[in-house]
Design a protein that fits this description.
five-stranded mixed β-sheet; alpha/beta
Length: 141
Amino acid sequence: MSMAVGDRDDNEPMMDMNTTPLIDVMLVLLIMFIITIPVQTHAVKIDLPVPNNNPSNVDPEKNKVMIDPAGTITWNGTPVDLAQLAQYLEQTKALPVEPELQVQPDPYARYIVVDNVMAVIKRSGVGKLGFVGNEQYARVF
């Protein structure tokens, strides 16, 4: 708001623009944009299994990959390296019924070892994968 002193006549209209309505409209638009912005979510894509309507009475075989805190990878209790793990995974894919692969890393296992194992499993294209023993992580941290 400007105030003029001197030559201004009281009957003369004010030449300054009233910006209050413009600021009000701008604030309303700003609030509308903030409300309509979608919430950022971080998601991991996972291919979930398709439900089978014909359950078989045969209990499928299960293979278990464990990783201990020392970084030792075991396949059904037998120590293996990453190359042998890849071979075993290829052999299981060739079976008529693919067995379920259960992965159980120790809570204190190094992340890089678990990451390498998961990379080998992903490259092999295993269709039935599950993580077991997740309740142990609730006690660790």
